[in-house]
Every structure is written in structure tokens, then in C-alpha cells.
Automatic annotation (TrEMBL):
Taxonomic placement: Bacteria, Pseudomonadati, Pseudomonadota, Alphaproteobacteria, Sphingomonadales
Xref: InterPro entries: Cellulose_Degrad_GH3, Fn3-like, GH, Glyco_hydro_3_AS, Glyco_hydro_3_C, Glyco_hydro_3_C_sf, Glyco_hydro_3_N, Glyco_hydro_3_N_sf
Originating species: Alteriqipengyuania halimionae
GO process annotations (BP): glucan catabolic process
EC number(s) given by UniProt: 3.2.1.21
Family: Belongs to the glycosyl hydrolase 3 family.
Key words of the record: Glycosidase, Hydrolase, Signal
A molecular function (GO) term: beta-glucosidase activity
Signal peptide: 1-23
Domain Fibronectin type III-like as annotated: residue spans: 695-764
UniProt protein name: beta-glucosidase
Length: 778
């Protein structure tokens, strides 16, 4: 165990510690609300199909609960890891005994039909009541067939692709006996230092909400009882992405307005889409750890949003309420968590060890325990586990499902859709046909483990992933050779070393073009992977400079799970392609883009800073009272840095193509929109280049004056369109007043009359298009 782990244990007596448009825009949760003169009164989200009343289910559960002791009930509220593939130390090695004694109702980190069947048999045949287990796992961006990391998928801005990736994940996971994934992670992240930025959909509220919906649809389908769908989990509720200084697990201190306007909407969208479960966050909100927050788990989640599923904690996060300084001991922490609205305790065994006593002491109402038990039993019932506990453990299906060719093809397709062309001076990409000798140089060029990034579930890191070198060799044109030299290292400790440089430079000298494959090691993002620098780690930057100095054309294929401040590369390397961690078929996907078999269409879901000193930086900032534009160039008393521009390196929504697109000025259906009305904004986009391409057309709005200050831009819609050379298409977005709602000065949610600016543009940023103006009237 780590030193930190030891210290925490000593502090808290933890038993375990885990790291663990068309035109018309899609209806947002807000548009599903009733409007009345500038007032938006939230209504309960549409009932998910699985929540429909089921008298038979109620009878079954009533009868079962009548036979349950308090120990049986607490067992249903307990989730433990199996002894392999855990995300943190496994300190409870008695889990099989715990299953037999009915003390655990759900297991995670166990998969394969055979293994889940074996564990299920213990629960069904060896316990007094025979209640089936629920099997969960972190299936985040693929189960066996690994798709690009979640941030990369979001960069596709293609909701069909995102849904497809989740669908394939569900097909594979369910075929291995799993019922439940701890995904989607819907935390808005605006601090590139935070390693978990790689796990979500980036910085934006609207895009993040659409991605959340697509993932929930992909995992759950429209029938929770089908054996090829799995329960989804919206996590980490809430505010986790706002960790101070980008340090994982750190304190969060944000206003309620920011919580409501920025961090909560993707969660609300997930509820609206029918997500079955929620996971609490490690952090505190307003001084209260999320697992003990009645405000979050009951007032907002249940009372305001009408969430009907169950809430699981994150790994030992009830226990962590002790070191947080919110509970004096584990027993009190368990009472606070249950009272707040937690239903299931992940790995901490706090409910297991203390809840019965808390009930006996009158500290916890039996009704509260019963409510949580019922929510969990309902989910097991809806999965069909009471009918047949082994229905997901089907070896024949498992064999026929994993790594299906069509899944691998989907992974390749989503991977190339996720890639973002950041720079392409002189059309350095796609590689010219005259480039006969290609040098792939850099630590990420032939590294299988890195291809699939962190949180790669049951993905094979050793043999299956196709590396960049392999992909480029396999897809090379006749007469083209592709050679490799590692050249540099991404390990922090290797900064200053030059060991591999000579070999790499020799290869560079005898090549026509250099594809530099650089970035971060796969585990430099994900959980517990924060950095204070966004530069290329190790000695990569030094080698990159030497490669450029050879005078050979250089293309940088960047691979990482966060925005990197590749400012030098942007100034000195002709072409940069961000490939994230592209997954099992990643090497083929990189080859498709680099050789021009696929025209890149990704756009950044997150702002890339020039330097870490600009963090947090995001496109929808406030204007301030002294915006830089108010001063003369170089003016002192405006909001700026002395040594760096305010502008990011690459804007949110930015990404190039091998073709070019022209935008007509936006037009509006009317100059004003009334309280009960709508307004349609349109622009015509033309492919002005020589090749077919896809473009993500984006709609931004600015509310000029409010009862509280408003962001300089907010994304309110997007549509990805495909255009042949010379082809034009008019894209229209329809807005209603409710789409312009926010948390107003008096903390009510709704829109306000006034003047708005609107852009239809290829990216965020004032220079991206000329705005039009409309009025919203009472
Ligand atoms: C801790 C992580 O924060 C969470 O995202 C994950 O689902 C659990 N560990 C389970 O592995």
C-alpha cells in the first residue's frame, strides 16, 4: 500500500481504500419544462420505460422483503470488489464468504460468463433467500473491443458514433455476465491538469449533456430487461471536475449557481434519458462530502429531478467522510450517507459493519433502509434476475460476441472520427504520394499498452491493440516503406536524456517524412493522474526540436488524454493531429487519416491552453469589467497577462479538415422571439475545397445583460454535416426561450427578456463568425 494509503487508514480506520439540427435542436431537460412568462418551472422528467408501475414486481419484492432480516437488507446495500482487476487495493479477501452469508448483494470487477455464474451460484444456491447478485464494472470506452477514450469520442461531435460505442460496449459486457457499467462519467472538466478530464466529454454543458444522453441510450437501449443491455451510471455526482488546482480528490468550492448552470445539467440530462443509477463523487460540495449530501442526493436528484433508480457511492467514499472531517467515525458516516440518500456502499463495508447497529440505536429509520433495499431489488427484478439469475451468463453468446469483426470496424470508425486536425500548414497532411520512406518516431509509435488509454475495462493491453506503426505499415501504398525508432521517452525521469536520439535522427535522415508520435503515457491521465505541467513529458520535446531541425517535413501525431500546451510544436511543426488514445484499432485509424483515406472531422471538446498558467481556461468565460478588448493593445489595467496572450492555443470547437468550408452570414426567422415562441437561425455552409468532408456546424449565443452576468458565449446546438466538393447545405437551429434559461439573480431557473447575440460558426471564438442579434420579449 502507498504511504498515503497508510496515512489515510490510520486517520480513518478505513477497512479499504480505493483509487481507484436539423434543424430543430434536441429537447434539453430545460425544454421539457413548462414555461410561464419568463419563468421556467421544472417538471418531473419523462418516466423511463423501466420505471413503469409493475404490480407483479411490487408483490414479489413485498413478499421477499417480509422475509428479510436487517442483515439480509444490509447485504443488498453492499457492493464489494472481487479479487481481480480492481481499481484499488483489494483488502477484503472474504468476498466469497460474504456472498454465501448473504452479506453482499452486488460484486464489481468480476466478469466472464463462467466466473459470474460461479459467484451467482453462491448467492442463489447457498444463501437463505437466494437473492441474485448484481455484477458491475467500469466499462468506460469499450469492454473488450476498446474505443477511443471518452474525451476523444466526444471530439467526434457525432452522437450516433458515441451511442454506437456504448452499444457495442453493452453487447460485449453483457455477454460476459455483466449487468451494470459505472459509466457515463458526465463531469464537466475545465482544468487540464486534472487527469480525469480524459474520462468525460470535456468542458461544455451542452455538448456534455448530449454525450451523456447518447451514452445512456447506448448502454441501456430501450429495454433494461433485454440480456444485451446494461444499467448505466451517471457519475460522479457532483462537481468532481472542479477539484481545486486540478489535483484529484481535492476540495471543490464552487457557487450554487455554477453548480446548477455548469456541473449539474449533464446529470439532469442523464436522468431525463432514463439512467438507472447514479454514483456519488469523492469531493465535498459546500462543505459536505457528496456521499453525505442530502441536498444533492435527495433535494436535487430525487425531489427536483424525480430520479427513480438507485445511488451507489464511489469507492470507499462513505469511509472518507471521516478524513474529510464530516463524520467522527464510520458508524456516523454510514448514518449520514443513508440519510442523505445513498442506497449502496461501494467497497467500504460501512453499511455492512455498522448499519444494523445504527437501526438498533434508533439512529437510522428502518423505513430508510427499506427504501434503499427496494430500489436495488427493483433493479434486479427489472433485469429479470429473479426469473433467471444466470440469464447473462451464457458461454455460447460470450464466445460468439467478443471482438466481432463488426465491433472492430466500429472501433476503427469511431477512432478516426474522434481525431482532431489541429494544424495543417501547406497541406502537410495527408502525406504526399511522393513520400516513399516514412519514419515513425517517438515513444507512442509502437506501444500497444498506450493505444487504449486508461479505464480500458477488460481490454487487452498486450497483443490486440494495433499500433501506429502497425497501422501505417498495414495500410501503406505499394512501394512505401514505414520504419520505426522510439527515439525518446515520455517518462518524467527521462527529461534531459538523449539515449535514443542518434538512432532516431539517422532514421529521419534517410526518410522523406517524419511522423512524430508523441504525447503522454496512458496512465498519465485517468484517476489519480494529475499534472502541474501540460508539456510533453520526458525528453520528447528535445527530440521533436531535433527532428524539425533536420529540415525534413514533420507531422506530429499527438496522443494523450488531456489538452497539452504544444505551443512550440504549433509554431514549428507543419501538421499536428490529435489522436487521443484511439483504442484497439487505433493504428489503423491513424493510418486512415494520415494517408488521406479518411478526412478528419473532429473538433475539440475542450480548450487547449498555451501554457498551464492559463488554466482554468474555457470558451464560455465571463467578460469581466475590464475585458482586454477595451484597452489599447498592450494596455495595462485590463484583464490580461504580462507575458502571454489571453487566447488559448486552440479553441473549444476547433478542428481542421482536408477540405475547407465557407459559412454564409447567419439569418434569423424574426428579429424577436416572444415568451411562447421560438426563433430559427440558419446559415449555408459550402464545401469550398477539392475533397468530400464533414463539418460540425455550431450555434453559440450570448445573453448580453442579465440579473447576473452571463458567459461571453454558450453553445446551444450543433450539427455534423457531410458535403461533397462544391456542395452547399443550409443548417437551421430552432431556439425556444427555455433554451436560454439559467440560474437568475434570485436563484430561480428561467430566462430573462433582453437582447441576445447569436453565431453560427465552425468553432467558438469571436473571430469565428459575425453575430446577428435578436430580442427576447416578455
Ligand atoms: C473509483 C472511481 O472514481 C470510479 O469512477 C470508479 O467507477 C470506481 N472507482 C470503481 O472502480
Amino acid at each position: 500500500m502507498t504511504l498515503i494509503g497508510v496515512r489515510l487508514l490510520a486517520l480513518a480506520a478505513l477497512p479499504v481504500l480505493g483509487g481507484c439540427a436539423t434543424a430543430a435542436m434536441e429537447a434539453s431537460p430545460v425544454t421539457a419544462a413548462t414555461e410561464a412568462r419568463g419563468q421556467v418551472v421544472p417538471v418531473e422528467p419523462a418516466e423511463p420505460t423501466w420505471a413503469a408501475p409493475d404490480p407483479e414486481m411490487d408483490r414479489t419484492i413485498d413478499a421477499l422483503m417480509a422475509r428479510m432480516t436487517i442483515e439480509d437488507k444490509v447485504g443488498q446495500l453492499t457492493l464489494l470488489t472481487s479479487d481481480w482487476e480492481s481499481t484499488g487495493p483489494t483488502m477484503r479477501d472474504t468476498y466469497k464468504q460474504d456472498i454465501r452469508s448473504g452479506r453482499v448483494g452486488a460484486i464489481f470487477n468480476a466478469y466472464t460468463s463462467a466466473y459470474t455464474r460461479e459467484l451467482q451460484r453462491l448467492a442463489v444456491e447457498e444463501t437463505r433467500l437466494g437473492i441474485p447478485l448484481l455484477f458491475g464494472y467500469d466499462v468506460i470506452h469499450g469492454h473488450r473491443t476498446i474505443f477511443p477514450i471518452s474525451l476523444g469520442e466526444a471530439a467526434s461531435w457525432d452522437m450516433t458514433a458515441v451511442e454506437k460505442a456504448a452499444r457495442v460496449s453493452a453487447l460485449e459486457a453483457s455477454a460476459e455476465g455483466l449487468h451494470w457499467t459505472f459509466s457515463p462519467m458526465v463531469d464537466i472538466a475545465r482544468d487540464a491538469r486534472w487527469g480525469r478530464i480524459s474520462e468525460g466529454a470535456g468542458e461544455d454543458v451542452y455538448l456534455g449533456s448530449q454525450v451523456a444522453r447518447a451514452r445512456v441510450r447506448g448502454y441501456q437501449g430501450d429495454d433494461l430487461g433485454a440480456t444485451d443491455t446494461i444499467l448505466a451510471t451517471a457519475k460522479h455526482f457532483a462537481g468532481y471536475g472542479a477539484a481545486q488546482a486540478g489535483r484529484d480528490y481535492h476540495t471543490v468550492d464552487i457557487s450554487e449557481r455554477t453548480l446548477r448552470d455548469v456541473y449539474l445539467p449533464p446529470f439532469e440530462a442523464a436522468v431525463d434519458e432514463g439512467v438507472a443509477t447514479f454514483m456519488t463523487a469523492f469531493n465535498e460540495y459546500d462543505g459536505v462530502p457528496a456521499s453525505g449530501s442530502r441536498y444533492l442526493l435527495t433535494d436535487v436528484l430525487r425531489d427536483q429531478w424525480g430520479f427513480d433508480g438507485f445511488v451507489v457511492t464511489d469507492y470507499t467514499s462513505i469511509n472518507e467522510m471521516v478524513p474529510h472531517g464530516y463524520a467522527k467515525d464510520l458508524k456516523q458516516a454510514g448514518e449520514q450517507a443513508l440519510d442523505a440518500g445513498v442506497d449502496m456502499d461501494m467497497q467500504g463495508a460501512v453499511f455492512m459493519d455498522h448499519l444494523a447497529q445504527s437501526v438498533a440505536d434508533g439512529k437510522v429509520e428502518m423505513a430508510a433502509v427499506d427504501r434503499a433495499v427496494r430500489r436495488i431489488l427493483e433493479m434486479k427484478y427489472r433485469l429479470g434476475l429473479f426469473e433467471d439469475p444466470y440469464r447473462y451468463a451464457d458461454e455460447a453468446r460470450e464466445k460468439a460476441t467478443l471482438y466481432k469483426p463488426e465491433f472492430l470496424e466500429a472501433a476503427r470508425d469511431v477512432a478516426r472520427k474522434s481525431m482532431v486536425l489541429l494544424k495543417n500548414e501547406g497541406n502537410a497532411l495527408p502525406l504526399a504520394a511522393s513520400a516513399k520512406r516514412i519514419a515513425v518516431i517517438g515513444p507512442l509509435g509502437n506501444s500497444k499498452p498506450d493505444m487504449i488509454g486508461s479505464w480500458a475495462a477488460a481490454g487487452d493491453r498486450g497483443t490486440r491493440p494495433v499500433t501506429v506503426l502497425e497501422g501505417m505499415q498495414a495500410n501503406a501504398r505499394d512501394g512505401v516503406s514505414v520504419e520505426y525508432a522510439k527515439g525518446a521517452s515520455y517518462e518524467f525521469a527521462d527529461e534531459g536524456k538523449t539515449d535514443g536520439f542518434a538512432e532516431a535522427l539517422a532514421l529521419a535522415e534517410r526518410s522523406d517524412v517524419i511522423v512524430a508520435t508523441m504525447g503522454e503515457k496512458w496512465d498519465m491521465t485517468g484517476e489519480a493522474a494529475s499534472r502541474t505541467s501540460l508539456d510533453l513529458p520526458g525528453n520528447q520535446q528535445a527530440l521533436l526540436e531535433k527532428l524539425v531541425a533536420t529540415g525534413k517535413p514533420v507531422v506530429l501525431v499527438l496522443m494523450s488524454g488531456r489538452p497539452n500546451s504544444v505551443t512550440w510544436a504549433n509554431d514549428n511543426v507543419p501538421a499536428i493531429l490529435h489522436a487521443w488514445y484511439p483504442g484497439t484499432q487505433g493504428g489503423h485509424a491513424v493510418a486512415d487519416v494520415v494517408y488521406g483515406d479518411y478526412n478528419p472531422s473532429g473538433k475539440l471538446p475542450v480548450t487547449f491552453p498555451r501554457t498551464v498558467g492559463q488554466v482554468p481556461i474555457h470558451y464560455d468565460m465571463k467578460n469581466t469589467g475590464r475585458p482586454i478588448e477595451l484597452g489599447e493593445p498592450g494596455a495595462k489595467y485590463v484583464s490580461r497577462y504580462l507575458n502571454t496572450s489571453n487566447d488559448p492555443l486552440y479553441r473549444f470547437g476547433y478542428g481542421l479538415s482536408y477540405t475547407s468550408f465557407a459559412y454564409s452570414p447567419a439569418t434569423l426567422s424574426a428579429p424577436t422571439m416572444g415568451a411562447g415562441g421560438s426563433i430559427t437561425a440558419s446559415a449555408t455552409i459550402t464545401n469550398t475545397g477539392d475533397v468530400a468532408g464533414e463539418e460540425v456546424v455550431q450555434l453559440y449565443v450570448r445573453d448580453l445583460v442579465g440579473s447576473v452576468t452571463r458567459p461571453v458565449q454558450e453553445l446551444k446546438g450543433f450539427e455534423k454535416i457531410a458535403l461533397q466538393p462544391g456542395e452547399s447545405r443550409t443548417v437551421s437551429f430552432t431556439l425556444k426561450p427555455a433554451d436560454l434559461a439559467f440560474t437568475r439573480g434570485d436563484m430561480s431557473h428561467g430566462w430573462e427578456p433582453g437582447e441576445f447575440r447569436l453565431w453560427i460558426a465552425p468553432s467558438s471564438g469571436a473571430e469565428a463568425a459575425t453575430p446577428v442579434t435578436f430580442r427576447l420579449t416578455e
